[in-house]
Amino acid sequence: MAVETIIIVCVWAAITIAAIIIEVVTPQLVSLWFAIAGAVCIGLSFIPGLPIWATVIIFAVLSVILLFALRPTLTKLMKKDKDLKTNVDSLIGKKVRMISQADFDNLGQGKVGDVVWSIKSRDGETLNEGEIVEIVEVDGNKLIAVRTEEGTIEE
Q: If you classify domain 87-152 with CATH, what class do you get?
């Protein structure tokens, strides 16, 4: 193997490793494309007679193609997992039965699972005992609720 080939492979390997390190440090899909293109150029460096300028052009073109073709799809896939609601955020949208009345001046209570929460009305309207309400927001340790069309539960 020629010394020139070894040097070129080492340069492409350094570019690829640097791009991987940058991607690990900043997981924003910034340099993943350069790492992939650099790995391809490492392989292309072993083709006899392929000029260095050709591998540089292939690196640039492949990086741009990968960036515009794959980044939008991968970004959507990464964001999909971030929409997962956990803990208190998972209560938003749930329907709860009031176990004590809430009005403008007083907090009421509602039971979500086995936990009794303080509930207040979003608009200051009265939420009566036994009424079904929907949780629309969480404010500290209080749930903010609105009336639903379901009314009251008959026992």
A: mainly beta
User: Looking at residue 47, what DSSP letter applies?
Assistant: S
CA distance 16 to 138: 46
Rounded to two decimals, the pTM is: 0.52
How buried is 34 (Cβ within 10 angstroms: 0-12 exposed, 13-18 middle, 19+ buried)?
buried
Residues 27 and 88: their CA atoms lie apart, in Å, by: 27
- Return d(Cα 37, Cα 5) in angstroms, integer: 18
Contact 109, 118 (CB under 8 A): yes
For the chain, which residues make up each domain, given as ranges?
3-82, 87-152
pLDDT average, residue stretch 106-132: 88
Q: Which two tokens stand for residue 58?
A: 């292939």
